[in-house]
Amino acid sequence: MNKVVFFDSGVGGITVLVDAMDLLPNEDFVYFADTDNVPYGTKSKEEIKRLVVDAVDFFDEDSIKALVLACNTATSVVINDLRKKYRFPIIGMEPAVKPASEIFSKRILVCATERTIIENKLKDLILILNVQDRVDVVSLQSLVRYAENYDFHNEKIFEYLEHSFRSIDWNNYDSLVLGCTHFLFFKTHLLKVIPSHVNILDGNNGTVNRLKALIEQKGGKGSLTFIKSKRSASFLEFDHFMRYYWESQ
Questions:
Q1: Most distant CA atoms of the chain, gap in Å
Q2: Chain segment 189-206, per-residue pLDDT in tens
Q3: Of 30, 180, 200, 242, which is the active-site residue?
């Protein structure tokens, strides 16, 4: 039976997987975490391309109903190459700059990994929307490491966020866009650091709704399989991340 494959460099894509499971409870999912090579945000473009293609080639192409790149960094680097190579639908992540620009009127702060910030995909999105005079970008790369280590209760996270935002005058902003799926684990932390008038947005809804629109829903068993860098993994290795995300929303 064809399955929907979710790919991420590590555990960040679990935040998208959980939302997809809520929307499509009868689909059969595979979650592939490239934990041997996380993080991607500090890697070269060439290395990221190689790692992602190698991961997708691990599967029989005919067994993939759709592929979700639940990783903004991978999406920004390799999604066009993947769409040229494979026949199945491929859905990527897009930072929610568009809804932020349409709903709110002040400046937009986009938080992303170092590689996503460097790549043209985010820059092009901002230019296409003609909001370059309203958008600022900040790297929160270290949040990936905290998430991968399940280190959500470390007080240093707040110190890191406050330091990262030290030059931000929040009076000029009314939206903060999370441009990395790992960052969604830290919404409660962010809400304690940013003013109450600043709204947090992410690209999850857009991604899972696009997935729903592209696949034929015949109804599977609602199964879920985990893989860590081409090795079978148990549900228990990821269950605590899923529960933490559910409970933190």
A1: 52
A2: 999 999 999 999 999 999
A3: 180
